Amino acid sequence: MRTLLDYFMLPLANFEVQRAQIEPVIAGLRFANTMIDFAFYDVPAFRRGLVHEGIEVDWVDGETGQPLREQTNLSALLNPEGSILVIDAANAPHVRRFINVETFLDPARDGARRVDTISVSGVGSSALGSAALAWNASTALGKPVAAIVPGYGLADVVQQALGGWFGFEMYSYWIKQPVQEWLAQIAPGAASVGRRLLATTPGHAKAPGTQVPVFRRGSGSSDVLHAILKAARNVDTLIGHSKGALVIGNAIADLPPEHLARLHVMTFGCVVGEDADVKRYDQFLGTFDALGMLNSGGNQAEHRVPTWHSTNTQSSLSMRVAVLARSH
């Protein structure tokens, strides 16, 4: 029988929260974020478009019971590590999924070379919300759009628990950034959850000693987007909603001038500082969008529209991303 002294003599690794223990918790929280995506993203329009083509969207990992030809799985359990979705509203296949950044960038894989537009939904959004935003953009622009689905890990859980839906930059740099470094040292197995997409990014950062992938620009999505913009010279349009706008702002902050010069940045429901010398900014903020105003930090939008924060076209006073993107 062990004494209290025996427990103090055990290696610290014996007390580490294991990956298998944390993954169900992460998946559960990600499922809750999927529910939030129904409120803030145009999921009904996305689903209608696919059902018209005989494709059912599965977001609960269950049998749909629908006599359809195919099923597109965008569930929380399938996408906890992050991915890149190429959404094409006009042509099949309407949804293509990449779980590796290098594969997406490979010219032979028909990923990055098919798109010149990338969209980023709010931080914590699921694959469903990311796909719905990209569907709106693809509908407006008449071409494929790549959506970055953020990975979701322990550092993100801590951020969300502390109110990370608000004040993205403060939480990212003063809480989330140190938390990820601390977790990478004391619980490397659990800290690696939600980092698989980031780990496939060329030149990604690693924590000293444990080699756990860590981000350097406020979030893993910002690091992924930054790497894509440096590698894929054909990408010239960035679309962000809510905290996704801030993800874009962080990703382009230290890009070389020759990369910035080609970029058209469009944001919805959050206004970023226009410090980066890009080709053009078009930022939209709703006159009834208190959440967007809070996260904008006093930055002024080029376009004020009579909407609130949601892009769900079934919601009253929603921000119509497809209409606004098409007109600008």
UniProtKB/TrEMBL annotation:
Tree of life domain: Bacteria
InterPro entries membership: AB_hydrolase_fold
Name of the protein described by the UniProt record: Alpha/beta hydrolase
Organism encoding this protein: Paraburkholderia antibiotica
